[in-house]
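Long-time lurker. I teach an intro course on protein structure, and each term I like to show students one example going from raw sequence to a predicted 3D structure in token notation. This year I'd like something fresh instead of my usual example. Would anyone be willing to generate the tokens for the chain below so I can use it in lecture? Attribution to the forum is fine with me.
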Amino acid sequence: MSVRTACASLYGLARPLLFAMDPERVHDLALEGLKRAHALGAARLLRSPLPDDPVHVMGLDFPNPVGLAAGMDKDGAYIDALGDMGFGFIEVGTVTPRAQPGNPRPRMFRLPQAQALINRLGFNNHGLDAFIANVQRARFRGVLGLNIGKNAATPIGAALDDYRRCLEAVYPHAGYVTINISSPNTRDLRSLQEDEELRRLLGALGAERERLAQVHGRRVPLAVKIAPDLADEQITRIADALVALGIDAVIATNTTVARESVAGLEHGTEAGGLSGRPLHARATAVVRTLAGHLRGALPIIAVGGIVSAQDAVDKLAAGASLVQVYTGLIYRGPVLVQECREALALWRARQREPMTGSAASAAGAA
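-- Reply from a regular --
Happy to contribute to a lecture. Here you go:
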């Protein structure tokens, strides 16, 4: 039996037991278990060795194009343990200036028939000081993204102050910084995606980034994470603003508030953001719209509904440069990372192959 088969079998046996428990409780237990396994050097034994598949995006060298999405490790307390799964990059957060408990429990719900999750966590985290201390302790060798947001108690009109404070604090420790303006679980946050508010916020943060680049002697890339619940016209306007304001990447997408795909399922009407399999088609469509409009002017990091290797390939085929997973890990376990890495390496190699024979003749005739 291969390492991968053994890992998949073990997770398959454990999943019914895990799914019988409260989702948020399992989330915490799983991260603590990974941390212990990392400390013992055992976690790496559960993954097959794979060669690097480097990607150059945002001026950074990613060991491979498969990353962990923000939200799994909000405080950056498990970076090295999560890195044992073989990610090329890990994004942690969302962190806010001050610690906050998030929304009342219960606030996370599984929808197993749909391979989906609904959460309304609400940026629960221990604040900037704890976050930075955790990040400084990490020894992860891939690219580290730090995701920033605003406190729930901060009025939307003062959101810039929170984002600016976070950016200044995380800047020295980040491979890149993600500006999260698309979570559905912080009141009015998505209004920051609207034209005037977006340009005001990103213009100010861009200026702050230039100041910090002078102070620290390096320019840290900025990414913006957008919602899937946007009309195509909004998506293209946001894309134009990101390019004009010097943003380095767009992350598509956050969770969705749409519920048509889970209508009639237990927990399907819970408030919060829906992720997992039902989000795949819409998130991929947003990537395709962005790619068609941007035409290479800005790289796209795709996230949303990746629960199989083919889902990850779909994202790159739609125009993304990198992918991120989260909910898929809950349903598939760590083997998902290995499968996605292999599939993307194969797909990328095929894109680099020169056309031969009839295919080359047909291209020449065209």
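Some talking points for your students: Residues 358-366 have pLDDT under 50 and may be disordered. The chain is about 40% helix and 15% strand.
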